């Protein structure tokens, strides 16, 4: 069981491809079209994020992301989160992202739980529909595909390392926990181990910070049972 609230399955191995070979474009909720032969080879030009181009992180984009406002955890939120997770809450600080209907999608957690356990997962994916979509991607070897992209694309790998630094800086701002110093989540900075963590990071801070989190959200929107925050159908009982 991973810290993101869902089991992260080890994908079966299959040949990986570069972004140029994959040619993944999003022209609708379920449509992919081949990459034109004369298109630019940059990974960031090739990957739109829900209708927008997925752009490389820059200091300006990271500064805007750093201004994301957290929502105060209300009694109603706590009740909904217990329903979503099926257990008591542990170390939840605030709601970091909400679905279109207003229920929590991602929470921000303390780096040390009340029982003293170090907890590296700063942003925790809670919405059951989002968790299910991320799990579906893991079950069809998307993590292996992304690992291949990291190995083949230096620009992507650099941006992913920057996302790791962003994650650590945000957690360190809450408090320093020596046992997890330098440990972020999701496999960052060089591996892909949990799409739930990467998606939660992108949802919490916005696009342009974590490239594989952004790509995870784009892929979640193209599933047979697609998920986006705007169209999420989950509702509390």
Automatic annotation (TrEMBL):
Residues 27-63 are annotated as: Disordered. Pfam families: DUF501 (PF04417). InterPro entries: DUF501. Transmembrane segments: none annotated. Residues 30-40 have a biased composition (Basic residues). PANTHER family: CONSERVED PROTEIN, DUF501 DOMAIN-CONTAINING PROTEIN. This is DUF501 domain-containing protein. It comes from Phytoactinopolyspora mesophila.
């Amino acid at each position: 069981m991973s810290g993101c609230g869902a089991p992260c399955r080890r994908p079966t191995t299959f040949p990986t491809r570069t972004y140029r070979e994959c040619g993944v474009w999003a022209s609708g909720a379920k449509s992919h079209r081949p990459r034109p032969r004369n298109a630019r080879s940059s990974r960031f030009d090739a990957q739109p994020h829900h209708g927008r181009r997925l752009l490389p992180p820059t200091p300006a984009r990271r500064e805007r992301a750093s201004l994301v406002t957290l929502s105060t955890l209300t009694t109603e939120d706590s009740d909904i989160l217990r329903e979503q997770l099926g257990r008591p809450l542990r170390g939840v600080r605030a709601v970091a992202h909400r679905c279109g209907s207003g229920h929590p999608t991602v929470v921000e957690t303390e780096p040390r739980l009340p029982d003293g356990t170090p907890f590296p997962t700063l942003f925790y994916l809670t919405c059951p529909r989002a968790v299910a979509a991320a799990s579906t991607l893991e079950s069809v070897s998307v993590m292996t595909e992304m690992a291949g992209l990291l190995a083949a694309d230096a620009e992507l790998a650099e941006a992913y390392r920057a996302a790791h630094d962003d994650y650590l800086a945000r957690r360190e701002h809450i408090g320093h926990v020596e046992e997890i110093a330098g440990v972020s989540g999701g496999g960052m900075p060089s591996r892909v181990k949990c799409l739930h963590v990467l998606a939660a990071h992108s949802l919490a801070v916005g696009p342009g910070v974590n490239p594989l989190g952004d790509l995870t959200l784009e892929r979640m929107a193209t599933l047979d049972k697609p998920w986006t925050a705007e169209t999420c159908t989950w509702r509390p009982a």
